[in-house]
Amino acid sequence: MGAAPSKTFNPVQDLPSLKGKVVIVTGSSSGIGFASLQHLLRLGAKVYMAAPDEDRTKEALERVEKEGRELPGFGEVVWHELDLKDPRTAKTSAQKFMEKESKLDILINNAALISDLGNPLKNQDDVQYNMAINYLGPFVFTRTLLPLLESTAANGDDVRIINVGSDGHKDVSHLDYSSKEAWNHKFNWSILPTLSRYKYSKLAVHLWSNYLAKRLAAENSKVMALIVHPGAILSDGAIRSLKTLPFPSLWIRLLGTVMHPQEQGAFTTVYAACSPRDNPHIFNGSYICPPNVTVTQAPGALDEERQRQLYDFTEVLLKSIDV
Question: 58: part of which helix (H) or strand (E)?
Fold first, then answer.
């Protein structure tokens, strides 16, 4: 199940104040994203809860009020509409954000479709949701926000992009990212096709993140891109998936003995986002896993030819739909 989250790490005590910082956390109305948002608010940041579902967001905003508003120096939370299924809406969302804010210190691409419940749906561009939500939408959202991130860094602020990956990227054997057909691979031969589709999309996140980190370095950008793996976490999303199985309470109880609470699943994210730059684990292209340490990615993620293959086809696809 991988290494356990740090038992001694306490974000509020161990990380610097984020007062005056502006942060976006995608997919933060529940799960690890919500836990990340809570940690960042406790550090005093202004955090945008970027999520598509206003009803669930209202519940999450109420939960924020209940679970931390009394803390001194508590930050501000704002809902920002973001639907990653369609790259057009991802781009529009980023443009609307730039009309609201003149700076962005931290972008956390956390949102992901973990389980399609065995039914791989496609968006209007004929791309399966696992790739549309987990990779293509975040790619467009980040690309559109990059000028704002760059201008914030140029003013001397510490600016970071944190992409939530997965150690499951090491298990992917279907390594073609050169076509829509490849992206829509169903993994029907796999024991758990849904999980295989998720891992394939997360390898895409790693490939993109590594390509982005190198591009930023080549351009002498002051923006850093890092990847994190949360660990084996019993998140809100995982519990929703387990509730679709026979005897859900049994599964939740059993997995609760080997998986960790979602508050701890957010540790690597906030550690990567907020630790000082003189920390040896914090550098452009770093891959941080529990318990907050840098780990080497699988060869498939470090393959520069495959990174370029993914990037090139992504650009071809986006050009074909005028995004």
Answer: helix 54-66
Amino acid at 134: N
For the entire predicted model, the pTM comes to: 0.93
The whole-number pLDDT of residue 67 equals: 81
| Model confidence at 192: pLDDT above 90 | no
Do the beta carbons of residue 287 and residue 296 sit within 8 Å?
yes
* Residues 270 and 11: beta-carbon distance below 8 Å: yes
Phi, psi (deg, nearest 5) at residue 191: -65, -40
Measured CA to CA in angstroms, residue 67 lies from 57, 61, 143, 319 at distances of 15, 10, 33, 44
pLDDT digits (tens, 9 = 90+) for 250-277: 755 665 555 556 567 799 999 999 999 9
Amino acid found at 182: A
Output the six-digit token pair for 99: 């009309």
Backbone angles phi, psi at 240, to 5 degrees: -60, -40
Domains delineated in the chain: 11-320 (3.40.50.720)
Q: What is the secondary structure of 267-317 as a DSSP string?
A: HHHHHHHHS-TTSTT-STT-EEETTTEE-PPPHHHH-HHHHHHHHHHHHHH
Q: How confident is the model at residue 65 (pLDDT cuts 50, 70, 90)?
A: confident
Residue 1 is predicted with a pLDDT of 43
User: How many Å apart are CA 122 and CA 19, to the nearest integer?
Assistant: 41
Mean pLDDT value of segment 85-100: 98
120-134 average pLDDT score: 97
Q: Is the distance from CB of 95 to CB of 144 less than 8 angstroms?
A: yes
CA angle, residues 304, 307, 310, in degrees to nearest 5: 150
